[in-house]
Design brief:
Layout: E1 2-10, H1 17-27, H2 32-43, E2 48-49, E3 54-55, H3 56-68, E4 71-77, H4 81-84, H5 111-115, E5 124-129, H6 133-149, H7 155-168, E6 170-172, E7 175-179, H8 183-207, H9 209-239, E8 241-243, E9 246-250, H10 254-270, H11 276-289, E10 291-293, E11 296-297, E12 299-300, H12 304-317, H13 325-339, E13 341-343, E14 346-350, H14 354-370, H15 376-389, E15 391-395, H16 412-419
Antiparallel strand pairs: 1-2, 1-3, 1-4, 5-6, 5-15, 6-7, 7-8, 8-9, 9-10, 10-11, 12-13, 13-14, 14-15
Helix pairs in contact: 1-2, 6-7, 6-15, 7-8, 8-9, 8-16, 9-10, 9-16, 10-11, 11-12, 12-13, 13-14, 14-15
């Protein structure tokens, strides 16, 4: 079953016409000028219908986004030409929803286009972030005060409150993400890590010389075990994240992570870094293909040879640009990684450019420096909004077939990273 989408009127006081026209043009993949013409037409009460048919699987998602932009939308079943003569007229089905924003695209995997059927256009469903610096600042102020009054113990609950806010302000297809972790879980994870450090410290003290050697080797041991800790942390974070009441999960093993990073990390060292692009692709494949949404596994088909030449160029230019060019290279990597990642029949798209990333980083630095760090909540919001506004999912997305599959995980790995002041940056 396919549908026609029609726009009847437009009204949204908090969104100017140019912005709304730009978003309309992006979602239907048309020139910005055409989006402006359609918006003016609809604003005058003149109905406009999208010429292509929308697949059944994408109709609700498209309607949610358009309704969120302030359009009054009709959904009409597309009647096959053979049946159009005898088929009785049907009333349009009206659906309402709510959503965020997004993005321009380019076509990849052209073989999928043929599967859409003639006249059916795949929709790009954007992510969105609606958080505000002022709101997040209130969360930081209240939790910081409680953390100070409890001599740091409340920090685990503070971290959880911040995540609850950031997750709830992130949306896809009109629905918020949710974070289900608790401060108690993080606190228990911290106690386990702290206990292990006490035991090792005690043993090192009573063993004398051998114990001192162990202490000297601890940084190397920690570096080898670091991938296992990241697995635990990433598993915990995904298992506490949901969208439409369906949980995410991570199913990679600690052993596989240690072997992957140890073997390919050594190869990278032996090749003086030339193997790094292939190493990076292997790690991305590990993290992405072991991530699940319900029972749907993410897929990744990137190849090291695709990023080898950009890596060499970035490495050569690094000293001449004082490292600034690396921002462009990292942004290129994110576009490449996301464009080669799929889930539930859809392919991700990330459209940020190096200049946009540079402007974001420069703006964040200026805010932090001139406010002596007070603007940190606004920096966090700006960064999350930037990522969400440039990320979308397009294709024949089959969310209605996803089955919930719970994967339990503790917070040991995450708190181990926090104790050692190691940031969690996967993917």
């Amino acid at each position: 079953m396919s549908y026609h989408i029609s726009l009847n009127t437009w009204s949204r006081a908090d969104l100017d016409m140019n912005t709304a026209a730009g978003k309309l043009a992006r979602v239907f993949r048309m020139p910005a000028k055409r989006g402006e013409e359609i918006l003016r037409q609809v604003s005058r009460g003149q109905r406009w219908q999208f010429e292509n048919k929308i697949p059944n699987e994408q109709a609700d998602l498209a309607l949610a986004y358009l309704k969120g932009l302030g359009f009054d939308v009709d959904l009409e079943p597309a009647i096959p030409e053979a049946a159009a003569v005898s088929a009785p007229a049907r009333e349009p089905v009206r659906v309402s929803a709510d959503f965020g924003r997004k993005d321009k695209r380019k076509d990849r995997n052209k073989e999928k286009a043929g599967a859409e059927g003639p006249g059916e256009a795949p929709m790009a469903i954007p992510f969105g972030f609606r958080g505000e610096g002022g709101e997040l600042c209130k969360v930081y102020v209240s939790t910081s005060l409680l953390t100070f009054l409890t001599l740091g113990i409340y920090q685990f609950w503070a971290k959880t409150k911040v995540r609850h806010y950031l997750w709830a302000q992130t949306r896809f297809a009109g629905d918020r993400f949710a974070y289900h972790g608790t401060g108690g879980e993080l606190f228990k994870g911290f106690l386990k890590v702290f206990g292990i450090f006490l035991v090792f410290g005690f043993l090192a003290g009573i063993l004398g010389g051998p114990g001192k050697k162990f202490i000297d080797l601890f940084p190397l041991i920690f570096l080898i075990l670091l991938p296992a800790l990241i697995v635990g942390a990433w598993r915990y974070r995904l298992s506490r994240t949901s969208w439409r009441n369906i949980r995410f999960s991570f199913r990679g093993t600690r052993k596989d992570a240690i072997v992957l990073y140890l073997v390919h990390g050594l190869i990278t060292l032996l090749t003086l870094g030339l193997y790094w692009p292939y190493f990076k692709i292997k790690t991305e494949k590990f993290w992405r293909e072991n991530s699940f949404f319900g029972d749907r596994q993410m897929e990744f088909d990137g190849e090291g040879k695709d990023i080898f030449t950009p890596f060499l160029l970035a490495a050569i230019l690094f000293p001449f640009t004082l490292g600034i060019n690396w921002i462009w290279f990292r942004t290129f990597l994110q576009r490449y990684f996301w464009s080669h990642t799929r889930v539930a029949g859809g392919t991700f798209r990330f459209t940020a450019t190096g200049r946009e990333a540079f402007n974001l980083i420069l703006g964040n630095i200026v805010l932090l420096v001139f406010t002596l760090g007070i603007a940190y909540p606004w920096v966090v919001v700006r960064t999350h909004k930037f990522r969400a506004d440039h990320l979308s999912l397009e294709g024949d997305i089959a969310f209605d077939r996803i089955v919930q599959e719970m994967q339990e995980s503790g917070a040991f790995g995450e708190e181990a990273l926090d104790v050692m002041d190691v940031p969690l940056d996967v993917g």
